[in-house]
Design goal:
Elements lengths: L17 H7 L37 E13 L2 E14 L10 E7 L23 E7 L26 E4 L20 E2 L16 E4 L2 E2 L5 E2 L25 E3 L7 E6 L17 E7 L23 H8 L30 H4 L3 E5 L8 H4 L5 E5 L4 H13 L6 E5 L2 H10 L5 E3 L11 E17 L11 E2 L1 H8 L7 H6 L14 H6 L24 H11 L2 H7 L33 H6 L1 H5 L4 H6 L5 H10 L1 E9 L7 E7 L6 E7 H6 L6 E6 L13 E4 L3 H8 L3 E3 L4 E3 L2 H4 L11 E9 L5 H14 L24 H19 L65 E3 L13 H5 L1 H10 L14
Parallel strand pairs: 6-7, 14-15, 14-16, 18-22, 23-27
Antiparallel strand pairs: 1-2, 2-3, 3-11, 4-10, 4-12, 5-7, 8-9, 12-13, 16-26, 17-21, 17-26, 19-20, 22-23, 24-25
Length: about 900
């Protein structure tokens, strides 16, 4: 037994909150005539037509196989049972970042007995023949000198019951494991000596503990309930953010798959995986104990009685209590211990492991270590978070560049600060509400968007993979027009006849006919989780809603065809808005009586259900794990510290939750995203039964490029704006309406030479080298369309290069959007016109006329693409690697392309290659 000398406190800073850690953190080739319809940085890798997928980069998939069997030792001879060749593939093993999911799949494994819908939950460890997936520090193989070797001790599990086994059956199968050393087959192995007093009442006689060895060599023994000490990141109970240790099921054909979320030192300092500390993904297919009933390798005193040999062999070599062909929920203790996932650490199972070395990208936090001097601060949009997390390490480790830090701030606030001269640069995802009062250039640096993400399960407990939403459904969610539960429905007369949640809304069911699981939380299913702070994302979302005649009429008081009405607190609300207001004031008498926290402090119920948060990264984290933030649970009722808390993680198999997340976050964390309605042939006056006549578009590089081609310049605001009315018309039939144009807003007068030089350098790099797609530092991650991937993006990048010259010069010059202006002094590259007709700044409206749509007059050219005709049948534009499924008009940018090419040639751009290369 190990002594207690190393058991104790972990190094300072080990206990880092997962939520806080994750929440805290080539020149463009223009002139390609076919670039409008080609997509060179697709959201590839997903069969789900509604989900942004992993980066379209060079694959780092690794596949390994193992020949596994149970080999019993009977009368000195080997008896082979259940031989199998198991093959495991891991789709991504390099350039990994904290919180990033990777996909593991396998063939040839033994079918799993029992059902546990949550493979990360405590029940899953009781499955029979699961495939166990762990993140472990170290590598396998004696050839790796100077690097820690993997063992069960270096594999992290969040809860102690996943690494200890206690029973009063003194001849439990693990004691008969022929491959385990004698010490591991004793009555008590791995148990802390002396045994802590807190553990004495929990030991059952036969106890095996697998201590966890932290990166600093501290041993955490765990034990029953964690009585002997846990790593700071571990917990004795399940938490909202589930562990990544996975006990996955294998189907009757021997195949299976699982998503595994990577942890680095940013969220698990005790495990300590980083670009400097080697770690591996370890896959252990549980085959069962290979039995040595005679105990040939044990001391005589530990050998089982000979007369019971047949009985012991029958138990040790048994093949399970659950029939894999019959779905049966597992309960701890019901499973056959000989083939239980709880014994993953036994040598019989561990010897069949497959180890996949992982490499990690340098995180942005490395800049605080490797760089000296004050960083350049960029305040603003969270929508660029994933990009700057890959750009920052490149900048601070390149001696030709410098250190910058992206300070996440609401875009409206950042724009106000740059206008007031309080900061030098703002990252925005939309135009300012009013023109800047001083010369500020708004230079495009990224094409991305927002996503309505979802986690919804079907009646079999499996995830639904596609979803259609229209603006009216989004308006219902935002306006708290679903009661959420029967109590509110019966008490709140204004909502009495409305559906309880989105799931029971007949409009939703007409657009999404596939059934959903009926055991979800109706409260959580009645809202759209989003941010409480002012945000360009909220303005874009509400602009999309406001431009839709169905949604706008409903907001103004017209019931939908099934009779659902707007919450009166939001009737007639003026849109768009920067921040969504919480206006409902209904206090439920009955729920106040039933909830001690509300009884002490009565507050309106529906805002508690909506429960917006200040940090968009929290919404992304909650959606990744299906955590409902609705503040409905009274913690510590009756105590002085009682408080309302979140509903928590929705049980896998019965989830129904939606949230607003950036496309880049959705791509990195593999969160499914809905297809949004882009076009309707006619507004129906009566109830409809399906999606006929409506077009829905999924976020993809093609659909984002199509939307970008429709951007129009607003001379007054000094940037390009999204023409939402045009997007929802026939012209935008294949365009994703959640487009966001991210810009770097910088004054062109008043900055120091130091700041101006750095910001102009940053801008030039971002629109050239920073547009190379891929997962490595210095590249553009998934969730963004490289500017060089389309003609529209290339022209925006040209403007940004001219803007960089204006920033460097600091002469108060702002390049004109239409290319009509000339800078003082030597002229930089002329900016091609992106549209012949500037569009006036959008106005906040309540009820736009449904019969008149604003039009954009492009430069008339013979090569303009024809406008697509709307389709009368429901159409989902799926994720594609190249091209656009639905024909799209070239839009104002595309129609002006020949003239723009002439300008580019005049400016000396003709030498740029016409073939745009992108990773597939």
């Amino acid at each position: 037994m190990r002594s207690a000398s190393r058991q104790g406190s972990h190094r300072a800073g080990a206990a880092r909150s997962t939520v806080a850690a994750r929440a805290a953190r080539w020149a463009v080739a223009s002139g390609c005539l076919f670039a409008l319809s080609a997509s060179l940085a697709p959201f590839a890798g997903s069969a789900d037509a509604s989900a942004p997928a992993v980066a379209a980069a060079a694959s780092s998939q690794v596949t390994k196989s193992v020949d596994a069997a149970r080999v019993h030792l009977v009368n000195g001879a080997d008896v082979v049972a259940d031989p199998r060749t198991i093959t495991v593939s891991v789709d991504l093993t390099t350039g990994l970042r904290d919180g990033q999911p990777i996909n593991v799949s396998w063939t040839g494994a033994h079918p799993t007995g029992g059902v546990a819908l949550d493979p990360n939950g405590s029940l899953a460890a009781s499955l029979e023949y699961p495939v166990v997936i762990l993140e472990c520090r170290g590598v396998s193989g004696s050839s790796a000198t100077g690097v820690e070797q993997i063992s069960p001790e270096t594999c992290y599990t969040q809860t102690p019951d996943q690494r200890y086994f206690s029973t009063n059956d003194i001849w439990s199968p693990f004691r008969l494991d022929r491959y385990s050393p004698a010490a591991a087959r004793s009555f008590r192995s791995g148990v802390l000596d002396p045994i802590p007093a807190a553990c004495l009442g929990s030991l059952l006689g036969l106890d095996h503990w697998v201590p966890f060895r932290a990166v600093d060599d501290t041993l955490y023994y765990g034990g029953p309930g964690g009585c002997a000490g846990l790593a700071p990141e571990a917990t004795s109970e399940e938490s909202s953010v589930p562990p990544n240790t996975t006990f996955a099921r294998t189907d009757l054909e021997g195949t299976g798959s699982a998503k595994f979320v990577i942890s680095t030192e940013d969220s698990n300092a005790s495990l300590g995986c980083s670009y400097q500390v080697a770690c591996s993904l370890v896959v252990v297919p549980v085959m069962g104990i290979s039995c040595d009933v005679a105990g040939a390798a044990l001391p005589a005193a530990d050998q089982p009685p000979v007369k019971y040999g047949a009985f012991f062999f029958q138990r040790c070599s048994s093949t399970g209590n659950f029939d894999p062909t019959i779905p049966r929920p597992v309960n701890p203790g019901d499973e056959d211990p000989a083939v239980s996932g709880r014994l993953w650490w036994t040598e019989s199972n561990w010897r069949n492991r497959m180890t996949f070395p992982l490499t990690f990208a340098k995180p942005a936090s490395v800049c605080g270590v490797v760089s000296a001097g004050a960083p350049t601060l960029l305040y603003g949009s969270e929508t660029l978070r994933q990009a700057t997390s890959q750009w920052a390490p490149k900048f601070c480790t390149d001696p030709k560049l410098f250190t910058f830090r992206h300070v996440m701030t609401g875009e409206p606030q950042a724009k106000n600060l740059v206008g007031a001269g309080s900061i030098s640069a703002a990252i925005a995802a939309g135009p300012p509400s009013e023109p800047f009062s001083k010369p500020v250039v708004q230079a495009p640096i990224a094409l991305t968007g927002f996503a309505i993400t979802f986690a919804i399960d079907d009646p079999l407990g499996q995830p639904i993979t596609s979803l259609r939403l229209n603006p009216r459904l989004l308006a219902k969610l935002l306006t708290q027009s679903y009661s959420g539960n029967q109590t509110i429905s019966s008490e709140y007369q204004a909502l009495h006849l409305n559906p309880l949640s989105l799931a029971s809304d007949r409009e939703f069911r007409a657009l999404n006919p596939d059934p959903v699981n009926d055991s979800f939380s109706t409260d959580v299913a009645s809202t759209l989780f989003t941010v409480s702070s002012d945000s360009d994302v909220i303005r874009a979302l509400t602009s999309y809603i406001n431009a839709d005649p169905e949604a706008r009429a409903w907001l103004d008081g017209k019931p939908d065809p099934w009779g659902t009405v707007v919450n009166p607190s939001y009737k007639g609300i003026a849109l768009p808005v920067d921040g969504w207001p919480q206006l409902d004031a209904f206090i439920s008498p009955r729920l106040t009586d039933l909830n001690p926290c509300l009884a002490a402090n009565p507050v309106p119920w529906l805002p508690l259900v909506a429960a917006p948060v200040s940090d968009p990264a929290v919404v992304a984290l909650n959606m990744q794990y299906g955590i409902g933030n609705s503040q409905l649970v009274c913690k510590n009722p009756g105590e002085n510290n009682q408080k309302l808390a979140a509903a928590g993680r929705q049980r896998p198999g019965s989830r129904f939750i939606l949230g607003v997340v950036s496309l880049a976050d959705a791509a990195r964390y593999q969160i499914r995203a809905a297809s949004l309605q882009s076009h309707i042939t006619a507004v129906p006056a009566e109830a409809f039964a399906d999606a006929t006549g409506r077009t829905f578009v999924a976020p993809s590089s093609s659909s984002l490029s199509a939307a970008a081609a429709l951007l129009v310049p607003d001379k007054a605001l000094g940037t390009w704006v999204v023409p939402y009315a045009t997007l929802r018309g026939a012209t935008g039939i294949g365009a994703y309406p959640g487009l966001l144009l991210v810009s770097l807003d910088v004054p062109t007068v008043g900055l120091s030479t130091h700041d101006a030089t750095r910001l102009s350098t940053f801008l030039r790099w971002v629109v050239s080298d920073g547009q190379t797609p891929g997962p490595e530092n210095g590249q553009l991650p998934a969730g963004y369309v490289p500017l060089k991937a389309s003609a529209a993006g290339a022209l925006l990048a040209t403007y940004s290069r001219n803007a960089a010259d204006a920033i460097a010069a600091q002469q108060g010059y702002v390049p004109a959007l239409d290319g009509s202006s000339k800078p003082p002094g030597p002229s930089p590259t002329p900016t091609p016109s992106l549209s012949a007709t500037p569009t006036p700044s959008p106005t906040r409206t309540r009820t736009p006329s449904p019969s008149v749509e604003p039009t954009v007059t492009p430069i008339p050219t013979p090569s303009s693409s024809p406008t697509a005709s709307p389709t009368p049948s429901p159409t989902d534009v799926a994720l594609v690697k190249t091209g656009v499924t639905t024909p799209v008009s070239a839009g104002p940018i595309g129609q002006a392309l020949p003239a723009l090419l002439a300008l580019a040639l005049f400016a000396g751009l003709g030498a740029i290659a016409t073939t745009l290369w992108g990773r597939r």
